[in-house]
Amino acid sequence: MNASATPRRRRKRSLVTPIALTVGLLALISLTIQGADPGLTLALLGAVVVVVGSCHLLFPGSRFFTIGLANFVGIYAIIFEFFVEAHFAKLPAYLLGLGFVLPLAAFLAGVVIRRAGIRAIVHGRPQGPTRRDLRRFGRAFGWVLPLGVVGAATFLLTPETSQPVVRDAFVAAMGFISFIVLLVSYDVVVLLLETGLLFEEFFEQVAGLAEPAFAFFTFYSLLVIIFAALYTVVDRFAPLNQFMIGGMPQRIGFAESLYFSVVTLSTVGYGDIVPVGSFIRLVVAAEVIVGMLLLLFGFNAIFSYSSSRRPPER
């Protein structure tokens, strides 16, 4: 009993984590739609939980599949927001929420209808690198052209267009988009599954950079503190103010020195704090040179470390 319960708990955790990440991402996007209308926000988050959760249960496996799906839905939400603000901002929230949900429902319906074929591809995929099917890739993005035509057609609407016409145009556009999504949902899911594998390989490589990245960050922080202390000490004991802050010459505090040291070492240089003394300018120039060298050789050392620990290919 305990042995059978353990896989269920693991599966539940593997489902909750990607859904939480997905909802967090889409919640941020939803706050920009129609002034964070509560109806649209609930429709977006509810639809995302249903779609992502259903796809994860239908095709359990890598969490990166659901992350890729979240990104896909996020792009759709941004495009939807753009067209709503441009042409359909005066439509009622319930209609906008329904229009947003329709393509997601069509996507889920297409996935459920073709789930057997998708599972066959998932379980039948050979291990190791495989040759990508460019025809499938093309079909997965075949919806871009017709949807681009629909989006361009919405610019025929003007501020003088009557609201009934705008409403009918919105319903027709979202209905057509839903139909296209239903047709291509199979290829989109297969593409996302393959993309999930690539994401997994990428994050495994990134995880191997944790140790050298921490060492780099430690040395970087040490340099920031050293130069910040130099700026504070020189400015404190110099007869004249060495910095202009906010356009006014004044003494610099250690907190401001830390901020200035960070932007200088990273070679950003916002210009809100400006060195004016001759000696302090030499110190700033030295930090800029050190920062460039640190970034150049530091990143090279990190990737060299990663390459040396990478297992040889068979």
Strand order, main sheet: write it out.
2-1-3
Q: What's the overall geometry?
A: elongated
Strand content: under 5%
SS-derived structural category: mainly alpha
Distance between the termini: 40 Å
Quick check: average pLDDT?
76
N to C succession of SSEs: HHHHHHHHHEEHEH
Determine Rg (CA atoms, Å).
27 Å
The count of helical stretches stands at 11
Helix content, binned percent: over 70%
Poorly predicted segments: 3-7, 126-132
What characterizes the major β-sheet? 3 strands, antiparallel
- Kindly state the number of beta strands: 3
Oligomeric description of these chains: single chain
Molecular structure report:
By secondary structure, the chain is an all-alpha fold. The chain contains eleven helices and three strands; from the N terminus they run αααααααααββαβα. It has a three-stranded antiparallel beta sheet. A hairpin with a 2-residue loop joins β1 and β2. α6 packs antiparallel against α8. The radius of gyration is 27 Å and the shape is elongated. The two termini are 40 Å apart. 24% of the residues are buried.
